[in-house]
Q: What sequence folds into this?
């Protein structure tokens, strides 16, 4: 709580109106945070949710709850916030909801961004443990489904088997819609599994993860079915090399854009940089995509370029996509340690 | 397109900046609408999405696409919108995204709510067909899982089997997190399936649905395991009767609050009204919860009370929840017809 009180003080706030689901869950333990709101103020934390969740909120929350909705939430909060300086999350509050906050009367509303995300950057040992468990379940799912990968199988059936495995082995859900992208579809960086039938000679990208007690895992692998072309093998090997080089560069103090550049620079040397169309990685925790972002340095967004710190959990995921040819992405989930990084993902790699 | 142009004209808009995922999908066909935006203007419709989706958008969209993100979207849109009156969706645009729209310069930004939702209220025959298909798959899933319902089984395993069935029989996803709530957990209106083991003598609520080509189904049933108490039987029978009475009242011209009152009034006569803690129903389509809302008349929100019209698809779902005792909810999905309604859901009911 001291850390939270300091956060308010250092931003000149008396309170923070928390609507971003990950932050609501972080502060309260409420597992249906889209239907909740948290009021963080100097004397404590309060969860608002509605009557559908009375019993559930009692069971789950480690902070007091108040059951109300819409206008009644505002009426209740007004008694605590009148005349106060109240921050809100500009990237997690709809324009019409901000207008409702005018009902807080004499409160002064201040847009904020990234306050709680800054605290969530560094994972506690308890949080790392939940991410490890999510990753462990996901790794097992890959081992379970790999023998089913062969020509004639539909992408969507493999995705479903992975998800079924994860959810029947402790995951509360898939971390995101699973990608199984084969052949020409592997040229789509986000090719959620389709009804396409996998063919001999194709490379198949899997991007999957589990959610365990709110925390996510995230990994990508690519496997050939039968013999694949030299061109695809080449893409695979260069992606794999870019991944290894970037992993070796991860350590506390390294700038996120520099890690991105290690992979991007290597691919540029191979004449492939134009096919690496996304950034290198992202933080993972209560959100599947969170800070820090490992991306190319952008003069328009210099704030995204930050030094890595021990306790961050991030992905490293170079990828190459060539329309009409195919694509490859390989992704590891890593914990930044005092001396470098620990790779948390242990799913097998193809031999290409 | 004429209907869309008229919508703009009647609201004094030159264009509408569409960020609500359901509306993005409705206007473009793009199946990952959270990562897209639509610009609706008088000469046409344009989808913006980023380079991850180039191939997918080409495959799916029935409108032109422009690949860009963040500031580049604004730069592109500016050439079309300079000096124009541009509506945005106040209930689907984050406060910080609204600030980005200032980059449109001389455009005049106008908050709107419910514009496209008004068009989506009445389903076309093609839309009804997709909802029917989603419901058909969901009904089959209930028949598939019912033989597995017995003491000793975990809620979460039944939910997983239902979802697996739906997704391996044509559904693109579950419509929402499936509720399986047994015994004391049935007193939670939104008791997503837990690891609780189902016991003899419990009543078990299932609330589930499928998503098919973007369209949802939504149904609730409750089944006893072995012999249940007279108190639970009583709750079940009164909920069932409230459902039947409300269904009989559904017809074009009936006010949504009056349908709610048919169920609520019956339950009040039984002395049970205080346990019916939510509204009677909601529209279903590209969103699982959409307009119209079938709710108690609220003087603060008189606009929610509207006449039903043929072509609307709505749920009727009375429920009773008593903490420490248990609960029941029963839900049908119905199409409002010229003369009354057609019940689209055909999952079996318990005999209680
Ligand atoms: Mn990732
Ligand atoms: Mn419903």
A:
């Amino acid at each position: 709580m001291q850390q939270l009180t300091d956060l308010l003080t250092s931003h000149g706030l008396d309170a923070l109106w928390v609507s971003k689901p990950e932050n609501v869950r972080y502060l309260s333990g409420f597992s249906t945070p889209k239907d909740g709101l948290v009021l963080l103020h100097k004397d404590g934390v309060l969860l608002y949710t509605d009557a559908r969740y009375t019993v559930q909120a009692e069971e789950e929350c480690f902070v007091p709850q108040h059951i109300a909705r819409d206008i009644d939430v505002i009426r209740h909060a007004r008694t605590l916030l009148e005349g106060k300086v109240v921050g809100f999350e500009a990237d997690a509050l709809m324009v019409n909801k901000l207008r409702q906050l005018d009902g807080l009367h004499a409160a002064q509303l201040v847009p904020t961004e990234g306050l709680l995300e800054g605290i969530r950057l560094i994972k506690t040992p308890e949080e790392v443990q939940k991410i490890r468990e999510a990753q462990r379940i996901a790794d097992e799912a890959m081992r379970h489904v790999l023998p089913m990968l062969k020509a004639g199988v539909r992408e969507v059936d493999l995705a479903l088997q992975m998800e079924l495995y994860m959810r029947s082995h402790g995951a509360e859900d898939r971390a995101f819609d699973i990608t199984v992208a084969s052949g020409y579809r592997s040229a789509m960086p986000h090719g959620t599994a389709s009804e396409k039938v996998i063919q001999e000679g194709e490379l198949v990208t899997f991007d999957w993860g589990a959610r365990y007690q709110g925390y996510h895992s995230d990994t990508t692998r690519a496997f050939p079915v039968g013999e694949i072309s030299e061109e695809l093998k080449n893409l695979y090997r260069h992606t794999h090399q870019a991944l290894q080089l970037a992993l070796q560069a991860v350590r506390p103090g390294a700038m996120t854009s520099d890690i991105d550049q290690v992979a991007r620079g290597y691919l540029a040397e191979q004449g492939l940089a134009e096919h690496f169309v996304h950034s290198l990685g992202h933080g993972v925790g209560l959100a599947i995509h969170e800070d820090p972002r490992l991306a190319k340095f952008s003069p328009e967004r210099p704030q995204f370029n930050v030094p890595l710190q021990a306790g961050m959990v991030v992905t490293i995921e170079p990828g190459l996509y060539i329309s009409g040819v195919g694509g490859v992405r390989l992704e590891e989930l890593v914990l930044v340690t005092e001396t470098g990084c620990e790779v948390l993902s242990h799913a097998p790699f193809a031999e290409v």
Q: What stands out?
A: Residues 130 and 215 of chain B are 6 Å apart (CA to CA). Chain B is about 35% helix and 25% strand. Chain B has two domains: 2-120, 125-343. The pocket of manganese (II) ion (ligand 2) is lined by residues B 218, 315, 317, 331 (CB under 6 Å).
